[in-house]
Amino acid sequence: MDKKLLYEGKAKRVFQADQEDAVIMEFKDDATAFNGQKRGQIADKGVINCALTARLYRYLEDRRIPTHLLEALDERRLLVRRLTMIPLEVVVRNRVAGSLSQRTGLEEGTELASCVVEFYFKNDALGDPLFNEDHIRALGLADDNTIAELKALALRVNRVLSPFLLERQLILVDFKLEFGRFQGRLLLGDEITPDTCRLWDASSLEKLDKDRFRRDLGDVEGAYQEVWKRVQK
Ligand code: UDP
To answer: What is the spatial order of strands in the sheet that 170-177 belongs to?
Structure first.
């Protein structure tokens, strides 16, 4: 029987699972950038991103970071808890890149003296604007406790994943997380993949993430495969 499609995004589809409190996330090969203005396909991206998210979320769970992951169903689909999402993107940065380079004038790759956590309001029509904590409170998107919890969880993810990836010769430059509530508890949702992280080779600083697609650097598929090869170990 066909499952009911609940939501279709740029890189994933979400279906209702048999259990009422769970959904199925299906990873597509579609890629978009610049708020949907650039579109394309990356061969087998969905398969790699599905496997990567399952691997990394299990690793985080083992280190007591709560996630929505329940089980991997097949090569493109994960069964996850159904969350009430908080409409924020939480970005953690270890080095300057992308929009932070534009905002500060600092060169990409500059190491930051301390991690930077940023919040973006998830709103396609507005192009996901940068919000500070006052904006979040004033719009009633999250209260003080939730903001503090989001920040603490995002920094814990960074403390766990940065060394894990560095052991695999990958620098975690920055990444984006999304959170939601399940039975009142805040859980890590969505995905962690080269679509949502900047990952650089530790010696050559070669980009092994979606910037290869955004900036037309070539061999996008090879970069995603290389990340999976290193992370699956
Ligand atoms: N990011 C994301 N989704 C977005 C915007 C950013 O996953 O809608 C990720 C991006 O891949 C990078 C980090 O968040 O790892 C910081 O992105 P940045 O603010 O530098 O924006 P960009 O340069 O990607 O526009």
So the answer is: 130-131, 111-121, 88-95, 170-177, 197-201
Q: Distance between CA atoms of 163 and 48, rounded to whole angstroms?
A: 21
Report phi then psi at 80, rounded to 5.
Answer: -135, 160
Architecture of domain 84-218: 2-Layer Sandwich (3.30)
CATH 3.30.470.20 domain residues, the chain: 84-218
Atom 19 (ligand 1) nearest CA: 99
Taking only the tens place, the pLDDT of each residue in 179-220 is: 999 999 999 999 999 999 999 999 999 999 999 999 999 999
Q: pTM for this structure?
A: 0.98
d(CA 38, CA 36): 6
The CATH code of domain 5-81 reads 3.30.200.20
Measured from the CA of 97, which atom of ligand 1 is nearest? Answer: 20
CA of 222 to the centre of ligand 1 (A): 20
- Angle in degrees, 0-180, between the axes of helices 45-62 and 220-231, rounded to the nearest 10: 30
Helix intervals (H) in the chain: 45-62, 98-104, 133-138, 144-166, 211-214, 220-231
